[in-house]
């Protein structure tokens, strides 16, 4: 369980919220059941319980509605009750506030009305929702001239908007002739609209009554006439819980005649209060704007200077900028000169003539080193050649030939090592220590 807080609700606030939830969430409904415990105290109200086989519902019928109940209410009677679910805040009792009580036998009539309502809704007869001008230039009221409805409407209009222009079209509002009369009057008003374009709203109204009293406003033809009307129509028939087909077909429905008048015109007292409030708000805004503009003017006046002072200050600023520019130019020139000297030295160091001279010096050094290396290499090679010559002389066959020996070779240069390798008459070459001889084999000796 959550701990108690400073925002805990009072019992009265809880009951008030519960009542609003019941009244707004469920709305008006019909309930059928058996009467029980019917009580009529001195206040004129009627209290009773409506029950069925498994549950019961406490109901209250206030004295303003008791006079519209034709049949007596007795315990055990089966009735249909129209009302709204509510809650009696002082005791927290859940109850049904009854608006009408009918014997259960009237259910067939209401069922037929419900079927007609569904058919007209499917055809779009209840789709009107044109906005009404507020206030209307010329209000046309269709109602009984002797009924309480016109008195309530005129009283509210006089209190709220005395400038309202109202025309009463007297028509019966109860009985068989009521629906045809209303249809004819509504058609005439639509045909006469071209003669007086200021006529802009039609109000169809009457006071409360029983279901039979209000039955003319459930006429199908009247609902269709309201739907096809070029003039916007407001319907205010009966009390808040009485909803007829005329109410549904109209552009706007009002719960009562007085409420219709309140919805049609503004309250001049509210407008006067609003105008006074707007006047005060305008004065405050004007005063605040004047104060802001005055402060802005003082600020601008403080910032305003004589042109001579402005020119002197600008001249000083110009002098400072000129000095800064000169110093910057001298510094930039010195930096550029240093950069130029650095580049010149780099160019001198990289001049082609200097590079040629350096290459010539380097070539002379390389040539001298090459000549020295060649001389040393020639000397070394000569010494090596002499040594190899001595070694070759020591093992050379020519040295053997120098001691008197000779080498015989045939025409192909093959050395003759045995006498058997020759033939008589064969020519041979004899290589001596110095020179060669051509010889011929005469014969072979063993």
UniProtKB/TrEMBL annotation:
It is found in: Cytoplasm. Heterooligomer composed of large and small subunits. The lineage of its organism: Bacteria, Pseudomonadati, Pseudomonadota, Gammaproteobacteria, Oceanospirillales. The keyword Hydrolase applies. Bidirectionally degrades single-stranded DNA into large acid-insoluble oligonucleotides, which are then degraded further into small acid-soluble oligonucleotides. Keywords: Coiled coil, Cytoplasm, Exonuclease, Hydrolase, Nuclease. It catalyses: Exonucleolytic cleavage in either 5'- to 3'- or 3'- to 5'-direction to yield nucleoside 5'-phosphates. This is Exodeoxyribonuclease 7 large subunit. Pfam families: Exonuc_VII_L, tRNA_anti_2. Gene3D superfamilies: 2.40.50.1010. It comes from Billgrantia antri. Residues 9-101 form the OB-fold nucleic acid binding domain. Belongs to the XseA family. The keyword Methyltransferase does not apply.
């Amino acid at each position: 369980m959550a701990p108690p807080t400073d925002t805990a609700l009072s019992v009265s606030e809880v009951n008030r919220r519960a009542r609003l939830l019941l009244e707004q969430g469920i709305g008006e409904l019909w309930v059928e059941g058996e009467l029980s415990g019917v009580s009529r105290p001195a206040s004129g109200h009627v209290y009773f319980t409506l029950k069925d086989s498994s549950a019961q519902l406490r109901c209250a019928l206030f004295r303003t509605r008791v006079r519209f109940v034709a049949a007596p209410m007795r315990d055990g009677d089966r009735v249909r009750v129209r009302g709204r679910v509510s809650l009696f805040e002082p005791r927290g009792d859940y109850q049904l506030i009854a608006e009408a009580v009918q014997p259960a036998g009237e259910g067939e009539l209401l069922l037929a009305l419900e079927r007609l309502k569904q058919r007209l809704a499917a055809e779009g007869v209840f789709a009107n929702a044109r906005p009404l001008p507020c206030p209307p230039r010329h209000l046309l009221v269709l109602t009984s001239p002797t009924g309480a409805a016109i008195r309530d409407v005129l009283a509210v209009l006089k209190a709220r908007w005395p400038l309202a222009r109202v025309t009463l079209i007297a028509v019966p509002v109860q009985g068989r002739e009521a629906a045809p009369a209303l249809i004819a009057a509504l058609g005439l008003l639509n045909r006469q609209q071209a003669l007086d374009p200021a006529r802009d709203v039609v109000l169809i109204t009457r006071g409360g009554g029983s279901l039979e009293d209000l039955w003319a406003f459930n006429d199908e033809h009247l609902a269709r006439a309201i739907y096809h009307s070029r003039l916007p129509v407001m319907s205010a028939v009966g009390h808040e819980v009485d909803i007829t087909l005329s109410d549904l077909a109209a552009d706007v429905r009002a719960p009562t005649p007085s409420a219709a008048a309140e919805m049609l015109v503004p309250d001049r007292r509210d407008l006067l209060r609003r105008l006074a409030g707007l006047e005060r708000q305008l004065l405050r805004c004007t005063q605040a704007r004047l104060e802001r503009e005055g402060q802005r003017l003082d600020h601008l006046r403080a910032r305003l200077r004589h042109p001579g002072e402005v020119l002197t200050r600008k001249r000083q600023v110009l002098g400072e900028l000129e000095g800064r520019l000169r110093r910057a130019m001298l510094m930039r020139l010195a930096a550029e000169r240093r950069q130029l000297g650095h580049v010149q030295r780099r160019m001198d160091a990289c001049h082609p003539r200097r590079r040629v001279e350096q290459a010539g010096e380097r070539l002379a050094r390389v040539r001298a080193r090459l000549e020295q290396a060649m001389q040393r290499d020639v000397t070394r090679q000569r010494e090596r050649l002499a040594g190899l010559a001595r070694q070759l002389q020591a093992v050379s066959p020519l040295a053997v030939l120098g001691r008197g020996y000779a080498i015989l070779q045939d025409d192909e240069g093959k050395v003759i090592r045995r006498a058997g390798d020759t033939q008589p008459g064969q020519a041979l070459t004899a290589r001596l220590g110095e020179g060669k001889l051509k010889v011929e084999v005469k014969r072979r000796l063993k």
